[in-house]
DNA sequence: TAACTGAATGAACGATCATTCAGTTATTGA
DNA sequence: TCAATAACTGAATGATCGTTCATTCAGTTA
């Protein structure tokens, strides 16, 4: 796990700090996603969150910190939720499939925020950007682990797993990036299923791989 | 082709207009990519282009027009160059492979500008955004055509071509989006070759498809 | 040589915020 | 009950640009 970044606050009660920051976060993600970072004013955020502009500066030391907090929230959610959701699966193929499903589901929940990450990571200071990218890398590692398990276990044929990770990750992100094109054609479930057909099936070994893939379709 | 957008200019000589706009475009892409749209001032652009700030307003009516011009330049380049580069190939599989190679090569040439498109399309007015997205859609259609030719000609098995297009396009864009991760591991050529292995090979029909794919490796 | 044209300049204007801080309200604990 | 402390407010400040425009200047025509 990374060194969790400290954002300075003048408020002492940690409970209150978390509550207010969550409140500000919600407003900020909504507005940044909608109007973009630079077009969103601190006053906008304050009004949407139902507080005064000055109060934001009790919980964040500058506007950029609010953006950084929002983007870290996104990558931290990926990193935290994917392992939780694949914990049940023991079979490597099942784990891989479930990690894709989990990732897509999280992206779907954080669709606006995921887009925001693509648009606004460059607006961060180098230090903040480094943290966000490091978080993204850590969730990539989870997927990479699943792929390598499939290869090592003989479920996948030899394949460039380094590159395949990015295919998986981009497929999940693309649900947010191209949502305007997909929303009318696919449900999230359909999108995930198609993704497995495109990204998992082709690499399965004929017997062991396909066998495991079939088995997970009709469980119990 | 789309209705080419007119950007207002007070300067009468069309030759000069094109020359100056190209000059401004170069500075703008460099600076927007580097510092982001909002952090780049008109004065920055003027200085980098070697002209005065006021002169920019003789060639564009507002700052946003400069951004719009830059993003349209990117999508227009895709749309113009891909067909040119695949004109030689007659075999559908070859056409598809060459379109990927062409797209990746153009992305590589316009790497900064491609990133800029991801980051800044939302900063455009709805009208401008619509034009940029329409341009992007038109180059997608080119790839879609190649895939469908492969399917119809019996080179590809039945596959969700709608979705596969986005896989191809995203693969090409990812060269720009994740360049920081790829630059040390792959040359552009290697990246393209790996892409064909991941995105073309799995869908080839055993005889006709694979045959055509093999043939293009050792031509004459 | 004078009159004209339109390209180019850059100082000045005005609007927009991020940030601060003097003052107000709420909470705590003795 | 009443300090004392913490949380909160929102008007004021000051810096930053996008945009304008009066002016200069090079080149062209009369």
Task: Explain the overall architecture.
Two copies of one chain form a homodimer. Chain A has 220 residues and is mainly alpha-helical. The first copy, chain A, is 71% helix and 0% strand. Chain A has helices spanning 14-35, 42-49, 53-59, 63-86, 92-109, 111-120, 126-152, 161-177, 179-182, 188-199, 208-215. The longest helix of chain A has 27 residues, at 126-152. Chain A is elongated. The relative contact order of chain A is 0.11. The model of chain A has no long low-confidence stretch (mean pLDDT 95). The interface between A and B is medium-sized, with 29 and 29 residues. Chain A binds a DNA duplex (30 and 30 nucleotides) through residues 10-13, 16, 41-43, 46, 51-55, 57-58, 62-63.
Oligomer: homodimer
Main structural class of chain A: mainly alpha
- SSE run of chain A: HHHHHHHHHHH
Q: How many E strands of chain A? A: 0
Computed Rg of chain A: 20 Å
Question: What proportion of the residues of chain A form beta strands (DSSP E)?
Answer: under 5%
Query: What is the number of helices of chain A?
Result: 11
The N- and C-terminal alpha carbons of chain A lie at a distance of 35 Å
Task: Please mark out the parts of chain A with pLDDT under 50 across 5 or more consecutive residues, or reply none.
Answer: none
Largest interface: chains, residues each: A-B, 29 and 29 residues
| Helical content of chain A (DSSP H or I, runs of 4+) | over 70%
How would the global form of chain A be characterised? elongated
Mean pLDDT across all amino acids of chain A: 95
Largest sheet of chain A: none
């Amino acid at each position: 796990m990374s060194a969790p970044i400290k954002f300075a606050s003048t408020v002492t009660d940690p409970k209150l700090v978390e509550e207010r920051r969550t409140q500000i976060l919600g407003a900020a993600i909504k507005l940044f996603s909608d109007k973009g970072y630079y077009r969103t004013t601190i006053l906008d955020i304050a009004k949407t969150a139902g507080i005064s502009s000055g109060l934001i500066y009790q919980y964040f030391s500058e506007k950029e910190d609010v953006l950084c907090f929002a983007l870290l929230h996104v990558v931290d959610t990926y990193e935290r939720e994917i392992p939780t959701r694949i914990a049940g699966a023991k079979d490597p193929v099942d784990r891989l499939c479930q990690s894709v499903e989990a990732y897509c589901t999280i992206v779907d929940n954080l669709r606006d925020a995921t887009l925001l990450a693509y648009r606004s990571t460059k607006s961060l200071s180098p230090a903040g950007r480094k943290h966000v990218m490091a978080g993204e890398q850590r969730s990539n590692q989870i997927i990479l682990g699943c792929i390598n398990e499939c290869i090592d276990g003989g479920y996948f044929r030899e394949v460039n797993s380094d590159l395949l990770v990015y295919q998986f990750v981009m497929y999940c992100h693309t649900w947010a990036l191209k949502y305007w094109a997909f929303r009318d054609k696919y449900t999230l479930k359909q999108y995930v299923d198609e993704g497995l057909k495109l990204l998992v099936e082709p690499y399965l070994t004929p017997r062991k791989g396909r066998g495991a893939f079939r088995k997970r379709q009709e469980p119990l």
